[in-house]
Design brief:
Largest sheet: none
CATH architecture: Orthogonal Bundle
Bound molecules: 2'-deoxyguanosine-5'-diphosphate, fe (iii) ion
Shape: globular
CATH topology: Hypothetical protein af1432
Radius of gyration: 16 Å
Amino acid sequence: MKLDWDKLREATKGQMPEKRWKHTLGVVETAISLANRFGGNAEKAELAALLHDYSKAWQTDRMERIIREEGLSEELLYFDKELWHAHVGAWAVEKEHGIDDPEVLDAIRYHTSGRVGMTLLDRIVCLADYIEPGRDFPGVNKIRKLAEHQLEEALTAGFDSTISLLLEKGKRILPLTVMARNDLIRLRKEQNKGG
Ligand code: DGI
Ligand code: FE
Ligand code: FE
């Protein structure tokens, strides 16, 4: 499919306030550099990063309706609203812009929660979201440092920080996030075995 990048950028920018757009540009830049560093597909990384928060600023009611009516994962409704925009966003960019690359759609869909068996593209987008230059949270510099050499270790540290935060706030944790984090540790062990 031939992509109209200018149109996608304008449309994405139009979904969100300025601050979120700046974050998006940071994720794009970071995802491209991670793709180059770790042998990922830089064009897919750019596209998934550009679109990853497409629905972030949409109203909660609208997201809930889409999750119910379009047959998205209703389990999400039991967990924090912050998780919803990722699934709704993947649905929306397919519907509104004909994005049909399943790898790109999955990277958008799982950029918040993670999943078991995260593809390289999933890992790149999810980590870029944690460490883009505009991010500032306790421990972000440690994750940036890890990301210079080890993608899985850095992303595990990212999930650990999210899980800690949710524990501190007494919030529910989507089981898939814990499973994603455990699976990254498995992957790292396997990589180490391979030399
Ligand atoms: O959309 P962004 O703010 O750029 O980042 P994101 O899509 O990674 O959303 C992160 C937020 O989601 C963060 O504030 C924590 C919140 N959250 C709530 N419940 C969960 C969760 N994140 C994960 N990974 N798992 C949860 O169960
Ligand atoms: Fe997000
Ligand atoms: Fe984001």
